[in-house]
Amino acid sequence: MLARRRGDRGSWANIRGPAAYQRTPDMACFEHLLSPRGRVSLALLGLLVLLTGCHQLHRNRALEASLPPVPVEAKVPDGELRTTHAPYRIEPPDVLLIDALKVVPKPPYRLEPLDVVDIRVTGALPDFPIDGRYQVQGSGILNLGVTYGTVSVMGLTIEEATQAVQAQLSKQLALTTVSISLFQTAGTQQIAGEHQVAADGTVNLGLYGQVYVTGMTLGEAKVAIEEHLSEFLAEPEVAVDVSTFQSKVYYIISDGASAESGDQVLRIPITGNETVLDALSNTGGLAPFSSENMWIARRSPDKAGFETRLPIDWHAITARGSNATNYQILPGDRIYISGNKLTALDTFMFRVISPLERTATFISLASSAIRTLSISFRTRNNNNTF
Fold first, then answer.
1. CATH number, position 260
2. Of residues 134, 131, 139, 133, the one with CA closest to residue 112
3. What whole-number distance in Å separates Cα of residue 37 and Cα of residue 348?
4. Which pLDDT score is estimated for 73?
5. What is the pLDDT at residue 50?
6. What phi and psi values does residue 267 have, to the nearest 5 degrees?
7. In-domain check, residue 143
8. Sequence-ordered list of residues with C-beta below 8 angstroms from that of 272, at least 6 positions apart, any chain
9. What phi and psi values does residue 70 have, to the nearest 5 degrees?
10. What is the mean pLDDT of each run of 10 residues along the chain (386 residues)?
């Protein structure tokens, strides 16, 4: 058998014999990769892979740039990125402010008590002119002053009231011209002003009845009120606004970790721009038994029964001025503040030990009373023996 010595030239393929190394295809590929030409091929392959990856990365970046940005509505509103609420829906017990812009009765209108008329008279006495507004008194008369007396106008039209005033003045004045116009009806005073939405969802307009406004926006409520008033007035026009927001609220719930107080719940009306810091400022800050572990429990918009839990970093909001978790408060939010664990443990121990302590005190007092009575009876028996 021929064996290859160390240092001999030649290929392993020249070794003969049963123990000779057999050159396989895998070994030939490996030898090719180790050759100069193989190393050049390997470098070219790596460069090709690198260029392909860079091209794919550039393509991904170009694709990301072409995609629309994340909409602002998809982000949770906070102290920096605030959102506007949906159109306000009126609900009890909101207070509406109604302004009567145009309240003209349908003709022929007959004067009633508390109506206000504008009277101008030419030819009146210089020292006692008649030029101004006069209110129909509760008895239905117009008081023109001591000089001219009173005129009954209740139930009269404007033309009939003009003739009545003219007849009254003609008793003292020779040539007079009377002009009367309706300035304000008594119903206007019952329309204009603040009106609280009642439990049945209506606002009371006095002589003109009630109008249902619950669930409507301000614009819809304006249309509903004007349509209702059009039964009594000629083309009425009103302005509607919310004077006091009372139906849209959020809650601040503090875990009652102390023995002196249970869970505390505050119901606060929302105005539309509050953040967590604004909300907690209404409570004067955190209570001594509260911890900094807090979150917002928010109902899902589709009301599917799933809620969103937004953790709040109180230290970051207050000490570092961060707005990341200073979320904007939305109607129906619950800000839950956990109690201090040490205070909760102390409360738990107090609740466990206190009954035992009272029981032990009762047993001790009972034992002392029994011992005292026993000594008293024993002393009395000894005295009776002697």
1. 3.10.560.10
2. 139
3. 80
4. 47
5. 53
6. -110, 115
7. yes
8. 84, 85
9. -65, 125
10. 42 42 52 59 62 48 47 62 84 95 89 94 91 93 93 94 93 89 87 94 93 96 96 93 92 72 83 89 79 87 72 91 91 87 65 78 84 78 63
Residue with tokens 């049945």: 200
Does 48 fall in a domain?
no
Report how far residue 165's alpha carbon sits from residue 153's, in angstroms, rounded to the nearest whole number. Answer: 9
Give 328's Cβ-side CA count (13 Å radius): 17
CA distance 3 to 20: 8
The per-residue pLDDT for 254 is: 86
Q: What is the CATH number of the domain that holds 164?
A: 3.30.1950.10
User: Residue 376, Cβ neighbours under 10 Å: how many?
Assistant: 10
- d(CA 177, CA 85) in angstroms, rounded, equals 58
Question: What is the count of structural domains for the chain?
Answer: 2
Distance between CA atoms of 109 and 155, rounded to whole angstroms?
9
**Residue 58: per-residue pLDDT:** 47
d(CA 92, CA 245): 10
Domain boundary among 184, 212, 234: 184
Q: Report yes or no on 10 lying in a domain.
A: no
| C-alpha angle 177-178-180 in degrees, rounded to nearest 5 | 155
Which pLDDT belongs to residue 57?
44
Read off the tokens for 16.
Answer: 């003969």
Q: What are the helix (H) ranges across the chain?
A: 25-34, 36-66, 158-169, 186-191, 218-229, 276-281, 314-318, 341-385
For 75-192, strand residue ranges (E) read 95-102, 116-122, 131-135, 141-143, 150-152, 177-184
38 domain residue, yes or no: no
Report how far apart, in Å, the C-alpha atoms of 248 and of each of 25, 117, 241, 264 are: 81, 42, 15, 20
- Report the pLDDT value the prediction gives residue 25, as an integer from 0 to 100: 52
Last residue of a domain, one of 164, 184, 204: 184
Domain limits for position 319: 249-339
